Amino acid sequence: MKNTLLVLTACMFVYCGASKKGITHVTLKEKEDSLLVKSNANFAVEIPLQSGTGNSWEFDALSVQSKLVSRSTANIPSTEENMPGGTIVEVFTFKAPAGFREETLTFTLRRPWEKKNAPAEVRLLKLKRL
Q1: Nearest residue to 40 (alpha-carbon basis) of 18, 24, 26
Q2: Which of 2.40.50.140, 3.40.630.30, 3.30.450.20, 2.60.40.2020 would CATH assign to domain 24-129?
Q3: Superkingdom of the source (predicted)?
Q4: Opening angle at CA 83, ends 69 and 125, nearest 5
Q5: What is the pLDDT of residues 12-68, one digit of tens each?
Q6: Contacts of 84 (CB under 8 A, 6+ apart)
Q7: d(CA 67, CA 70)
Q8: Cα separations (Å) of 48 from 5, 58, 74, 76?
Q9: What is d(CA 110, CA 62) in angstroms, rounded to the nearest whole number?
Protein backbone atom coordinates (compact mmCIF):
# COMPACT_ATOMS: atom_id res chain seq x y z
CA MET A 1 0.00 0.00 0.00
CA LYS A 2 2.84 2.41 0.89
CA ASN A 3 4.64 1.67 -2.38
CA THR A 4 1.49 2.24 -4.42
CA LEU A 5 0.89 5.54 -2.65
CA LEU A 6 4.50 6.65 -3.25
CA VAL A 7 4.29 5.78 -6.96
CA LEU A 8 0.98 7.62 -7.36
CA THR A 9 2.38 10.65 -5.54
CA ALA A 10 5.47 10.70 -7.76
CA CYS A 11 3.31 10.41 -10.88
CA MET A 12 1.10 13.22 -9.65
CA PHE A 13 4.11 15.53 -9.25
CA VAL A 14 5.36 14.70 -12.75
CA TYR A 15 1.98 15.11 -14.42
CA CYS A 16 0.91 18.13 -12.38
CA GLY A 17 4.08 19.78 -13.60
CA ALA A 18 2.55 19.67 -17.08
CA SER A 19 0.02 22.26 -16.00
CA LYS A 20 2.56 24.73 -14.58
CA LYS A 21 2.19 28.11 -16.19
CA GLY A 22 4.95 28.92 -18.63
CA ILE A 23 6.19 25.38 -19.28
CA THR A 24 5.38 23.80 -22.62
CA HIS A 25 5.29 19.99 -22.70
CA VAL A 26 5.77 17.66 -25.64
CA THR A 27 5.68 13.86 -25.66
CA LEU A 28 8.22 12.57 -28.16
CA LYS A 29 6.59 9.36 -29.42
CA GLU A 30 7.74 9.54 -33.04
CA LYS A 31 11.25 9.51 -34.49
CA GLU A 32 10.92 13.20 -35.24
CA ASP A 33 8.70 15.98 -33.93
CA SER A 34 8.74 19.77 -33.61
CA LEU A 35 7.94 22.32 -30.92
CA LEU A 36 7.41 26.09 -30.95
CA VAL A 37 8.85 27.89 -27.90
CA LYS A 38 9.70 31.43 -26.89
CA SER A 39 13.27 32.55 -26.23
CA ASN A 40 14.34 31.88 -22.63
CA ALA A 41 11.18 29.80 -22.01
CA ASN A 42 11.17 26.53 -20.12
CA PHE A 43 9.90 23.43 -21.88
CA ALA A 44 9.74 19.72 -21.06
CA VAL A 45 10.28 16.73 -23.33
CA GLU A 46 8.64 13.46 -22.21
CA ILE A 47 9.86 10.25 -23.85
CA PRO A 48 8.21 6.86 -23.16
CA LEU A 49 10.52 3.94 -22.38
CA GLN A 50 10.06 0.22 -21.77
CA SER A 51 11.36 -0.53 -18.26
CA GLY A 52 13.48 -3.55 -17.48
CA THR A 53 15.52 -3.42 -20.71
CA GLY A 54 18.52 -1.60 -19.26
CA ASN A 55 18.07 1.16 -21.84
CA SER A 56 17.73 4.84 -21.03
CA TRP A 57 17.38 8.00 -23.07
CA GLU A 58 20.44 10.24 -23.35
CA PHE A 59 20.49 13.86 -24.51
CA ASP A 60 23.26 15.22 -26.76
CA ALA A 61 24.01 18.47 -24.92
CA LEU A 62 27.08 19.44 -26.97
CA SER A 63 25.23 20.17 -30.21
CA VAL A 64 22.63 22.68 -28.93
CA GLN A 65 22.29 25.93 -26.99
CA SER A 66 19.27 24.83 -24.95
CA LYS A 67 20.23 24.13 -21.34
CA LEU A 68 19.12 20.99 -19.53
CA VAL A 69 17.51 22.11 -16.25
CA SER A 70 16.38 18.76 -14.85
CA ARG A 71 15.77 15.12 -15.69
CA SER A 72 13.40 12.68 -14.01
CA THR A 73 11.78 9.28 -14.52
CA ALA A 74 8.29 8.17 -13.49
CA ASN A 75 5.91 5.29 -14.03
CA ILE A 76 2.99 5.90 -16.34
CA PRO A 77 -0.26 5.11 -14.55
CA SER A 78 -1.88 2.05 -16.11
CA THR A 79 -4.84 -0.19 -15.49
CA GLU A 80 -2.57 -3.10 -14.58
CA GLU A 81 -1.03 -1.49 -11.47
CA ASN A 82 2.30 -0.64 -13.18
CA MET A 83 3.43 -4.22 -13.68
CA PRO A 84 7.19 -4.89 -13.96
CA GLY A 85 8.41 -4.31 -17.49
CA GLY A 86 5.73 -1.68 -18.08
CA THR A 87 6.14 1.69 -19.70
CA ILE A 88 7.87 4.53 -17.90
CA VAL A 89 8.50 8.09 -19.03
CA GLU A 90 11.73 10.07 -18.91
CA VAL A 91 11.19 13.83 -18.58
CA PHE A 92 13.87 16.29 -19.69
CA THR A 93 13.24 19.94 -18.73
CA PHE A 94 15.11 22.62 -20.70
CA LYS A 95 15.49 26.36 -20.94
CA ALA A 96 15.43 27.65 -24.52
CA PRO A 97 18.32 29.90 -25.49
CA ALA A 98 17.91 33.65 -25.94
CA GLY A 99 17.58 34.82 -29.52
CA PHE A 100 17.69 31.42 -31.22
CA ARG A 101 15.87 30.70 -34.48
CA GLU A 102 15.82 26.94 -34.48
CA GLU A 103 17.81 23.95 -33.32
CA THR A 104 17.45 20.19 -33.16
CA LEU A 105 17.62 18.26 -29.89
CA THR A 106 18.88 14.70 -30.28
CA PHE A 107 17.90 11.90 -27.90
CA THR A 108 19.45 8.42 -28.14
CA LEU A 109 18.21 5.21 -26.55
CA ARG A 110 20.98 2.92 -25.34
CA ARG A 111 22.34 0.94 -22.45
CA PRO A 112 24.72 3.24 -20.54
CA TRP A 113 27.44 0.59 -20.30
CA GLU A 114 27.40 -0.03 -24.09
CA LYS A 115 28.70 3.38 -25.24
CA LYS A 116 30.58 1.90 -28.22
CA ASN A 117 27.49 0.22 -29.70
CA ALA A 118 25.10 2.03 -31.99
CA PRO A 119 22.01 3.41 -30.20
CA ALA A 120 18.86 1.28 -30.23
CA GLU A 121 16.89 4.33 -31.38
CA VAL A 122 17.34 8.04 -32.10
CA ARG A 123 14.60 10.66 -31.74
CA LEU A 124 14.83 14.28 -32.84
CA LEU A 125 12.95 17.33 -31.62
CA LYS A 126 13.12 20.36 -33.90
CA LEU A 127 12.82 23.48 -31.79
CA LYS A 128 11.59 26.67 -33.46
CA ARG A 129 11.23 30.11 -31.92
CA LEU A 130 7.68 31.29 -31.45
Answers
A1: 24
A2: 2.60.40.2020
A3: Bacteria
A4: 35
A5: 444 444 445 568 889 999 999 999 999 999 999 999 998 888 999 999 988 899 999
A6: 51, 52
A7: 9
A8: 22, 13, 10, 9
A9: 18
